[in-house]
Description:
InterPro entries: PP2C, PP2C_BS, PPM-type-like_dom_sf, PPM-type_phosphatase-like_dom. The protein has helices at about 5-10, 95-115, 120-140, 200-210; strands spanning about 25, 30-35, 35-45, 50-55, 65-70, 80-90, 150-160, 165-170, 175-180, 185-190, 215-220, 225, 240. The chain is an alpha+beta fold.
Amino acid sequence: MASSRFMKIVSPCWKSSAVADDDSHRSKDGSFRNGLLWYKDSGHHACGEFSMAVVQANNLLEDQSQIESGSLSSLDSGPQGTFVGIYDGHGGPETSRFLNDNLFHYLKKFTSEHHGMSTAVIKKAFLAAEEEFLKLVRKQWLTKPQIASVGSCCLAGIICNGTLYIANAGDSRVVLGRTNKATKEVDAIQLSTEHNASIESVREELRSLHPDDSQIVVLKHKVWRVKGLIQVPSTMFHLLP
Length: 241
């Protein structure tokens, strides 16, 4: 895509509300929408400033994102910090919306029970959210069968007590931008590793989990896919403190 066309498409992400187009509107949370563009200007959170921008691929937004700041526990006396969640939905918006509504709740619950933040707490929150969504699928799939084919990748970043925790399930990637003091340029630092069938270790794990299914991973059009359909395995977690 030509750079001029690209900038024309994404430039509203950096517009202030004062110069937004007539078809734009501001939400109660301070975010702004203009057609398929959504953005939220810089604001303060417990661990610094933040901003968000989303460019939809189509009219149905399958992806969700959230920033929560303050207590990371159900107890007011719990640890303070900032939680960022990015949910890359596929097949529909149901899973990403469920994560957006529930993952942080589980994180706070288990932080309270374990009296602090840890990689174990984050993994328990991921597993609890997954199990609860699977219950929803079992309950609804006879009347809403398409829900059984809906999924979402999940990235979570948590800053707590001076430590950055990164968790991901699926093939989204966390990249940290850090200013190089010598060159004044921004260096991109990869913080997480994708989970998809293009990675040999992931294919081997899927085969070991499904020894009776010769089609669990299939090379299709030179791309490895789970059941020949999708690159992302159903359940995998990778946690970095």
